[in-house]
Design goal:
Layout lengths: L3 E6 L6 H6 L4 E3 L2 E3 L5 E3 L9 H6 L9 E3 L3 H12 L4 E6 L7 H15 L5 E5 L5 H15 L4 H12 L2 E7 L3 H5 L5 H6 L5 E8 L4 E9 L1 H15 L7 E6 L3 H15 L3 E6 L2 H7 L3 E7 L8 H10 L2
Helix pairs in contact: 3-4, 5-6, 9-12
Length: 310
C-alpha cells in the first residue's frame, strides 16, 4: 500500500519549521500584491517583511495588499513532486468561500490522476483559514502515523474539520468587507467604538459569521474564553493555536487565560500569515480549537454566545 503525502497552501500559516514538525510534505505558495503593485511569493517565515511592518502599513487603510491565488501549473508542480515519489496525496486548502484554490486543485487532481493512474489524490475544502487548516494537517499526519490510507484519512479529516472552531474578535471588519468576506452592513459593526465582533465558522458558506459582539476588550476576553469552554472538547489532548494580526500582547493575554482555565496539551501563538493577512488586515485575535460539531447557520453557537453576553 502506498504512503500518502500531506499538502497544504500558504494559508495554513505554519512556519517552515512547523511544517517539518507536523509532517507537511508539500506547500503551495501563493503570492501577495504589495501596495506599489509588485508581486511577492508568500514567505511563511517573514524574512521579506516583518509582521509589524506588514500590518502596520495597513493601519490607516491607505496602503492595502491583495492575495493572488496560485495557478494550476504551480499546484501541478507541487503535486508532481510527491507523485514521483510513489505517494498518494491528501491536499487540504483554504476555504472555497474565500479563494478559488480548492477548485483549481480539484481540476489539477483530475488531470494528474490520468497521468498517474496508480495514485490517488484527495483534495479537501477546509472551509477554514489560517491555523484552523494547520490543525487539520496535524490531524491528518496523526492518521498517517496510525497507518490509515489516503481514502480513510481524507474522510476522517473532513469530519474533523466540521468541528474546528474559531473564537476571537476583530477590531475592524473593513478589510474583510473589502475582500468580499463580509457584507458592508456587518462590517459597520466592526467600526463602532468599543465593540468587538466575535465570529465562528459557517460550515455551509466556508466564511466567517459574526455571532455576537462584546463591548470592551475585557468583556471580549471573558466572552471568548467562556465560549471556548462551552464548545471545546478534550482540551487537554489538543494543540491549540492563537493567531493575531498586530495584536501580540492581546494574543498572549488570551493564550494565558486559555492555558490557566482550560489546560490544553499545547498552545501555539503566531501571526496570521501574509496570504490570509492581506484580506484580514490588522486587529484580529482568535483561538482555533476542536469542539462540538458546528450547527446549521451557527444557530446553537449564536445562542450560546448571546447567553454568555447577557
Amino acid at each position: 500500500m502506498a504512503s500518502f503525502s500531506i499538502i497544504s497552501d500558504s494559508s495554513c500559516d505554519l512556519s517552515s519549521e512547523q511544517q517539518k514538525r507536523f509532517g507537511l510534505d508539500g506547500w503551495i505558495g501563493s503570492n501577495v500584491i504589495f501596495p506599489d503593485g509588485h508581486l511577492e511569493k508568500v514567505d511563511s517565515d517573514w524574512n521579506n517583511i516583518t509582521p509589524e511592518d506588514y500590518y502596520g502599513s495597513m493601519v490607516d487603510k491607505k496602503l492595502l495588499y491583495k492575495s493572488a491565488t496560485p495557478g494550476p501549473e504551480q499546484i501541478k508542480e507541487v503535486f508532481r513532486t510527491e507523485l514521483e515519489k510513489g505517494n498518494d496525496i491528501l491536499c487540504i486548502v483554504l476555504s472555497s468561500g474565500m479563494s478559488s484554490i480548492y477548485n483549481y486543485s480539484c481540476v489539477v487532481a483530475r488531470e494528474m490522476e490520468k497521468e498517474y493512474p496508480d495514485r490517488i489524490i484527495r483534495v479537501i475544502d477546509s472551509k477554514r483559514y489560517s491555523t484552523a487548516i494547520a490543525m487539520a494537517c496535524i490531524y491528518a499526519n496523526e492518521l498517517r502515523q496510525q497507518g490509515k490510507d489516503v481514502r480513510e484519512a481524507a474522510e476522517l479529516t473532513e469530519a474533523y474539520l466540521e468541528r474546528i472552531h474559531q473564537s476571537g474578535w476583530m477590531d475592524d471588519l473593513f478589510y474583510l468587507a473589502r475582500a468580499g468576506r463580509l457584507s458592508k452592513g456587518t462590517a459597520f459593526m466592526g467600526t463602532m467604538i468599543g465593540v468587538k465582533p466575535i465570529a465562528d465558522f459557517n460550515q455551509k458558506t466556508g466564511m466567517f459569521q459574526v455571532i455576537g459582539k462584546a463591548r470592551g476588550v475585557s468583556r471580549a476576553y471573558r466572552a471568548v474564553v467562556d465560549y471556548i469552554r462551552a464548545t471545546i472538547e478534550q482540551p487537554e489532548q489538543q494543540i491549540l493555536f492563537v493567531s493575531h494580526s498586530l495584536r501580540k500582547e492581546l494574543a498572549e493575554r488570551l493564550a494565558g487565560m486559555i492555558r490557566d482555565e482550560l489546560h490544553p496539551k499545547e498552545l501555539i501563538i503566531g501571526s496570521v500569515g501574509q496570504s490570509c493577512g492581506a484580506n484580514i488586515g490588522p486587529g484580529l485575535v482568535a483561538a482555533f480549537y476542536y469542539g462540538k460539531p458546528l450547527s446549521d447557520q451557527l444557530k446553537e453557537e449564536t445562542a450560546i454566545l448571546q447567553n454568555i453576553l447577557k
